[in-house]
Every structure is written in structure tokens, then in C-alpha cells.
């Protein structure tokens, strides 16, 4: 046997179970690339947008903040979440928190779309590799049983050829797990930033509402005093 084998030769040596492993490897790479491209395309920077919204709220321009968020491109993931908070500002803290939570869950769900396939591939690939190895071992021992003379080379050759599927399966699982953990970490960081930003924007809106109500009450009181004086 050759001391060095090409991938094509290894593929043929692995037997029929190399075909599902090939499909798993293509699916793993495709999913990792697609999800990475999706997260890179969608702007998940929360800090800059949060500062702009808080600045406009502090200036008393809540409608301006809402208009600015509406003007943001759809790829700015945090914009729709903050907009949901502003749209429910008149309904109280509980309503704003529920609106932010619902919109954030939808956005995170879109970001995590396909993650479950990566975890499934990380589990199925080594199992398929082990299955191929067991199948190869059965064939190797069958050859040993039917051979008139058994030597160490015959035994070792059949076993390490059978282990090829295990190696391929484990390699696919490693790639899938690494990609999954990197992507999940990015989404989790975005979720944490959204929670922190919401905890700052909601109190700012509540303060702005209270200031607005106080100003209206004071204006009404002054109007009543002026009307009383005129009488």
C-alpha cells in the first residue's frame, strides 16, 4: 500500500459511508458560511444606536427618535427593537418591556436560524463515522475468517482502513461545533447588549413621559388661575 494517500483514495477506502459524510461536510461548510455572512451583513452594533436614541429622548424629541429609527435600513437589527419600545412608550413600562422582548426574540430567532442543523451535524457525523468503522471492521474480520493464512499486516490493514470514516466524521463534527460556538457567542453578545440598552432607554422614556405630564399639569393650572383672575 502507498505510504501517502490522496483525499480521493481515502474516500474510496472509506466505503459507502463516505457519501453521507461528504454530504454532511458540504452542509456544514455551507451553513457556517451562510450564517457568518448573515451576521456580518446585519449590523448588530447596539451601542451607537442606543446613544443616538437616548440623546434624542433626553432632548425631548421622542418622535424624532422614532423617525430616525424608521429611516434606518432593515439590516440594522437593533432599530426595530428600539422602535417597538418607542411605539409603546405611552402604555407604560410593562408594555414597553414586553414589546422589546417580543421583537428581540424574533430578531434573535432569525439570527439563530440554522444553528440547530449545525448541532445535528455535529452529532450525526461522528455517529455515521463510527457506523462506517463498524461496518468496515465486520468486513475486515470476515476476510480474516475466510483467509487460510492470517498475518499482522492483513489485520492492521483492514482495521485502519475501517477507521477512515471515524476520522472524517470527527473532523466534520469539530468544524460544526467550532462554527456553532463562534456564531452563538456573537448572537448572545447581541442579546446581552439589547437587554442593557433596553434597561437604559425604557427609564429614559418614562422620565420623559413624567416630565411631559408635569408640564401639561402646570400649564393647565396656570390656565385655570388666569381664568379665575379674569372672572
What kind of sheet is the major sheet?
none
- Shape summary: rod-shaped
Overall mean pLDDT stands at: 85
As a percent range, the share of strand residues is under 5%
Which properties best describe this structure?
mainly alpha; disordered C terminus; 231 residues; 9 helices
What features would you describe in this structure?
There is one protein chain. The protein is mainly alpha-helical. It has one domain. Helices cover 84% and strands 0% of the residues. It has nine helices and no strands. The radius of gyration is 31 Å and the shape is rod-shaped. 27% of the residues are buried. Residues 212-230 have low confidence and may be disordered.
Structure described in brief:
With 231 residues, the protein is an all-alpha fold.
Give the topology.
Layout (H helix, E strand, L loop, with lengths): L6 H8 L3 H24 L5 H12 L3 H9 L6 H11 L5 H19 L3 H32 L5 H11 L1 H67 L1
Helix pairs in contact: 2-7, 2-9, 3-4, 3-9, 4-5, 5-6, 5-9, 6-9, 7-8, 7-9
